[in-house]
Amino acid sequence: MGEAQRSALWALVDDGGRSGHPEAATSLASADAGWKETGAPGGLKSDTRLWSGAAEGVSALRGTVKKAIDQLSDGQKGLGAGDEAVTGLITGSAQVGVYRSWERYLDLLGRECGELSDKLRKAGNDHYGNEEATRAAFQRQLTKPEGAAGSGEHPTTDGR
Amino acid sequence: MVSFATLRTVRPAEFEEAADGYHAVSNAAGDAKDRLTDEILARALPDPGSTTTDSEGLVGAAAAAARRRLERLAESCHYTQVECGLVRAALNGFATDLDAAKKKLDGALDDARVAGFTVESDGSVTYPAAGAKVDGDIPDGGTAVAYDDPTAGAVADQAARFDPNPHRAAAQDCANRIASAVKEATDADSRWAPRLKALRAQNDLTVSHADWADVHRDQRAVQKVAGEYLDKADIPQGRPPAEAARWWTTLTREQQADYATLYPASIGALDGLPADVRDEANRAVLAQTKGTYETELAALPTRPGRPGYNQPGLSGVDTWRDRQERDNEWEEEHGAEYERLNDALTGIRAIEKQLGSAGQDGLPESYLLGFSGKDDGRAVIAVGNPDHADHTAVYVPGTTASLGNIEGDIDRVNNLWRDSAPIVPDQQVSTVAWLGYDAPDSVVRDAPFSHYAHDGASAFASFVDGLKETNSADTGGHHTAVAHSYGTTLVGATARQHDLNVDDVILAGSPGVEVGSAGELDVPEGHVWNQEAEGDPTPDVGRWSHGGENWEVGGGVRLVPSDEVFGAQQMTTDTQGHSDYWKEGTQSLRNQSFVITGNYERVQHEAP
User: Fold this and answer.
1) What is the pLDDT of residues B298-340, one digit of tens each?
2) DSSP secondary structure string, B98-160?
3) Helices (H) and strands (E) in chain A, counts
């Protein structure tokens, strides 16, 4: 949460009146209840809700990806490295490579989902402290492809 | 080489089961992409450039950084959806070819078994001694072998025919059929393996334009070998929408999915197919076209740069005239291409923005019902699903409409949707921007010619018929054509040359509709509505090119819809000039909304 978005009023409200302005705290607290839940500056509560909502959404996506990986592997019966369909057919053997590549890619996407939902949740909990630190957190790429670094480029048809 | 033993034991269904797994992945990826753009991004992290000031959402640099990561993730999901769809299609195609070969093999093996022959492990066929005695002995049995070499094969066949053992010919036939089945399997295997290999997933989190261009190439490569499995020629292109709708229902769900994956351009353009099917297919075309165009743009040599001053010290070697000449050369060689690609990409970005705008400013989901980058481009975008809509309006733009300019047309249908939907809160509304024809490029040079309207008329008639075919609203669906400028001429040409199957027609700034009276526009009396704003010169300027003749009035007169005698209902306008009829918050717009929602009695009429 950026400094710019925290209204100074919050400092008074959070204070609970300890700084000696109990009447200010009370009236501000009731005013707070009347604030519309918009993204307008000072809407700290709604920002939290938005970050958390996004975090939950992305977390659910990770589940979707995991389920897809399971369904993908379920379909591989009879197409394992030692099976006739693979040893006797070049298409079968090609499929093994294709399957492994998608298994790896979906795992990568799942890990990216995990990293993002974690960061979104932290942003909602004001874990990073300020706007700049939050931005930097999302800028940092923790999830990396596994295996050979390479170019990671989409394989081409090699002119065929 | 596929061996006889392999073909004997292998189960093509295993490849189909694998295909199902990729299908599940493709669907999940599509769902994930939709949820990211329509829910997560739309609600929490909308694009600040496209929303109005009172929309909700996170703002700031941190939100922007989060949005970039999530947009990239959505792109990865789309890539997964399309590419895994191709893997599924390829595996289904291979399974079909393999199965056909295996059936032939099984047929030959059955016949051999019934005849009492023994099929050896190498596919040769051993037959017993049999036949009328020759020189006191029953003719010997033997083993029939199939030959690759045609000459050797012919010799063997010949010998078999003349052998006194009657089994030999039958055994030779079995052996030949076995070999032929194995060869068919081998051909299929060689054909599909390289295509499949190209469908491996990439290994990074960015889907670049080169990646999308590769997807496009992969798709074409799979199409080339898919002929047996799913014939492109079977797609009822150019047929009446009712026929296309019927064809679609005869396909299994699997075939539907594979057709849409392999031939997205054809399926996306097919009037009569459900909106969500066309939308998904066209989105794949959009992404691939964008990738291809961006790659082509990047491949153009950089423009030398506007010549300016003579550089000190170099003026003798490289004058500004030299640079001017180089710049002119670049312009001559690459200028048109550069402009074409840039214009198309501008339009593509506008469409992408719209497709990602569900939930913003109250807008519903949008559907891409048509897209092509060729020529001036084609784009058909529906705001709200027209298949479920009680009221649908199809907006036809006029001169200079092109893919590059599509953003303006999208804005108009957005305005029309936002203005009309609240009028009928218990019903569903869809507004469609239809750039489905080659609009005249120049107001001055091209617009007077009618052929643009005539060429587009059959496309428009088919599109409207397609909407009616797929509409499932309980109320039966109410359709309005909303046309602007030259678009009105196209609508008139459609009524004149084909059947305009709408319930209401709205004409704004019309230079003439080729027919001389409202009664010729195929809608019931009182259902033609006209608007001419103050300061709009088009109706008078266009009269002599596109006005229609009305012999009841007296010959030789060319009428436009603004003429009272034409017989249209004249609606009021409170906007100025030729282009503001869809401005937000105006009576001009509101009158249109009343018509398209069937609230005719609320329309404000011009004083006669």
Assistant:
1) 888 888 765 555 556 655 666 777 878 888 888 888 888 999 9
2) HHHHHHHHHHHHHHHHHTT-EE-TTS-EEE---SS-BTTBPPP-EEE---SSHHHHHHHHHHH
3) 6, 0
Coil vs helix vs strand at B307: coil
Distance in angstroms (rounded) separating the CA atoms of residues B158 and B368: 63
Kindly identify which residue of chain A lies nearest to residue B26, measuring between CA atoms. Answer: A68
The pLDDT of residue B235: 92
- A14 has a chain B CB within 8 A of its CB: no
ipTM: 0.73
C-beta atoms of A138 and B59 within 8 A: no
| pLDDT (0 to 100) of residue B546 | 78
Q: Which residue stretches of B198-274 are H helix?
A: 209-225, 241-250, 253-262, 264-268
B47, B204, B215: best to mutate for the A interface, most A CBs within 10 A = B204
The Cα–Cα gap between B460 and B178 comes to 54
Sign of CA dihedral B508, B399, B458, B389: negative
- Dihedral angle of Cα B143, B125, B173, B8, to the nearest 10 degrees: -160
Whether residue B66 and residue A138 make contact (CB cut-off 8 A), yes or no, is: yes
* Beta-carbon count within 10 A of B512 CB: 29
Whole-angstrom CA distances from B453 to B235, B240, B379, B490 are 27, 20, 17, 4
Whether residue A80 lies within 8 A of chain B, CB to CB, comes out as: no
Q: Is the dihedral of CA A27, A33, A37, A43 positive or negative?
A: positive
User: With contact defined as beta carbons under 8 Å apart, do A146 and A104 qualify?
Assistant: yes
Query: For A135-158, what is each residue's pLDDT tens digit?
Result: 999 999 999 998 755 445 566 544
Asked if B295 and B337 count as a contact pair (C-beta separation under 8 A), the reply is no
Instruction: Give the tokens for residue B195.
Output: 């295509």
Write out the H or E segment, with its range, that includes residue B368. strand B366-372
Q: How many residue pairs from chains A and B have C-beta atoms closer than 8 A?
A: 236
> What whole-number distance in Å separates Cα of residue B233 and Cα of residue B240?
16
A158 to B10: CB separation less than 8 angstroms, yes or no: no
Closest by Cβ to A2, choosing from B60, B198, B214: B60
- Chain A nearest C-alpha distance from B212 (Å): 9
Nearest 5°: phi and psi at B150? Answer: -60, -35
* Cβ within 8 Å, pair B25-A157: no
Q: Are B392 and B427 in contact (CB under 8 A)?
A: no
Token pair in block for residue B192:
């599909």
Q: Which of B25, B94, B203 is the closest to A147 by Cβ?
A: B203
In angstroms, the CA A151 to CA A153 distance is 5
| List of chain B residues whose C-beta atoms are within 8 Å of the C-beta of residue A152 | 202-204
Candidates B5, B51, B2, B16; CA nearest to B360 is: B51
Pairwise CA distance, residues B195 & B199, whole Å: 7
Judge contact between B89 and B232, C-beta under 8 A: no
- Cβ neighbours, 10 Å, residue B497: 14
Among B494, B399, B401, B403, CA closest to B447:
B399
The one-letter amino acid at B505 = V
Number of C-alpha atoms within 13 angstroms, CB side, residue B251? 20
**Which of B406 and B545 is assigned the larger pLDDT?**
B406
